[in-house]
Design a protein that fits this description.
It comes from Sphingomonas colocasiae. This is DUF1476 domain-containing protein. This protein is mostly helical. Helices cover 83% and strands 0% of the residues. The chain contains four helices and no strands. Helix 1 crosses helix 4.
Length: 107
């Protein structure tokens, strides 16, 4: 029975590690996409930092990426920029790849 218990523990540990990594990638991605949007809106470095943090916080409103997309799309269109939901989704995908690469390099 210990072999089964050991395997179960190993799977649980791997699952927890994978979930933590996905959380870190998503948070890093949100920060990067916040910086991307702030640059498009022409914000100062201080405003960029605050905006990136606000985008990270926006992700805690509901499960999934829809809350982040709504925030970015609303803020970018309010700033007078021509961008649609597809453009925001493309930026999210690009920043996900970049966030994953950054985290892999830092380990």
């Amino acid at each position: 029975m210990t072999t089964f218990d050991d395997r179960e523990r190993a799977f649980e540990t791997k699952f927890a590690r994978d979930e933590e990594m996905m959380f870190r990638i998503t948070a890093r991605r949100n920060r990067l996409v916040g910086q991307w949007a702030a640059e498009k809106m022409g914000l100062t470095p201080e405003e960029t930092d605050a905006y990136a943090k606000a985008v990270v916080q926006a992700d805690f409103e509901e499960a999934g990426d829809e809350d982040v997309i709504r925030k970015l799309l609303g803020d970018l269109t309010s700033a007078g920029l021509e961008i649609d939901e597809a453009g925001v989704r493309v930026a999210l995908e690009e920043k996900t790849v970049e966030a994953r690469r950054q985290l892999m390099e830092s380990q």
